[in-house]
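Tokens in:
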């Protein structure tokens, strides 16, 4: 099966390098993507919004044959959900890596600091302690060296969702920062922030305790978890 891997903010396709060997060893074809405006620090990010990132992945889905699975990390999870909404009949599975599906009208994170029309990787003090678990000084330096500013509108645009068939696509949540039990409890309590996840008909949870960037802090375990979550290769 073709598997599209969508990175979170500030990252390009190469951020999936530690993970893709596990996907391919399970018999799948991995397609890590670099989203528009993330090609390099010097790329033109003006005018790029969330809909452009969704459209770029939809275009890749349209160029592939047969069912496709999506893997979305962090903000890439919102993009994956937008793709499911656009092509619900083409998506066999979505794996959210420390992420989840946003509801119609939600922004990914409109509180990140914007600098000159884009969002560079902020100072570590902006993040919560749970984000940074296992991200040691060497990993932080590596991350900052590779980070590319995010187009500001991608962080703040409201996502638009129109096709309720998106709720029929099965999902696996790989929970890292917080245990999956927290998500289950939030759904049971009817909390607003998980209202979209609550409507998905088939959800599995996998706990991978670490910080928000498991592709750096627990790459082997993440690769194994993703491979196990995907449908059987075919």
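Residues out:
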């Amino acid at each position: 099966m073709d598997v599209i891997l969508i990175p979170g903010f500030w990252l390009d396709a190469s951020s999936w390098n530690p993970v893709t060997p596990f996907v391919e060893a399970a018999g799948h074809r991995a397609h890590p993507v670099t989203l528009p405006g993330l090609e390099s620090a010097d790329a033109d990010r003006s005018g790029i919004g969330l809909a452009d990132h969704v459209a770029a992945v939809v275009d890749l889905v349209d160029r592939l044959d047969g069912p496709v699975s999506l893997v979305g990390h962090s903000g890439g999870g919102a993009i994956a959900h937008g793709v499911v909404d656009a092509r619900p009949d083409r998506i066999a599975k979505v794996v959210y890596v420390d992420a989840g599906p946003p509801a119609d009208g939600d922004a990914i994170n409109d509180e990140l600091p914007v600098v000159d029309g884009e969002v560079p990787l902020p100072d570590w003090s902006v993040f919560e302690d749970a984000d940074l678990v296992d991200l040691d000084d060497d990993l932080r330096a590596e991350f900052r060296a590779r980070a590319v500013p995010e187009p500001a509108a991608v962080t703040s645009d409201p996502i638009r969702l129109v096709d309720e068939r998106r709720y029929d696509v099965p999902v696996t949540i790989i929970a890292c920062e917080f245990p999956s039990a927290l998500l289950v409890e939030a759904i049971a309590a009817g909390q607003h922030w998980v209202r979209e996840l609550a409507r998905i008909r088939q959800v599995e949870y996998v706990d991978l305790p670490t910080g928000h960037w498991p592709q750096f802090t627990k790459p082997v375990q993440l690769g194994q978890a993703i491979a196990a979550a995907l449908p059987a290769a075919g």
